[in-house]
Amino acid sequence: xxxxxxxxxxxxxxxxxxxxxxxxxxxxxxxxxxxxxxxxxxxxxxxxxxxxxxxxxxxxxxxxxxxxxxxxxxxxxxxxxxxxxxxxxxxxxxxxxxxxxxxxxxxxxxxxxxxxxxxxxxxxxxx
Length: 127
What we know:
Structural class: mainly alpha
Shape: extended
C-alpha cells in the first residue's frame, strides 16, 4: 500500500502503519480509519482496494509530508524575520516554549563555545 509516495509497512496494523506518514499520529490515524469505516486492528496487507481508496481520499484532504514540512519551516522563518521572541529562541537553538534552561536543555545549550555542556575532564584510557 503506497500513499503519497510512501510505502506503508505490510505487517503492521493500519492504525500504526499510517503513522509512517509525516503529519499523521495515532489519534489522526484513528480518525481517518473511523471516517473510512475500516477497522483499526486490520493489517495493511488485508485491506481491500475499495477500503484503500477510501483511506487515500481522506488522507489527501490533509496537509502532510513535504507540504507540512515546508509550512512549518516557513512559520519558523517568519518568526525569525519579525524578530519575535520565539524566533530569537529558534535562532539561538534554545527552548521556545518557556522551559527552564539553568538545569535542563543540556543538549541544546552550548557551554563556553563547546557543543556539549560536559565537565571538561577527560576519561583516562583503560589498559
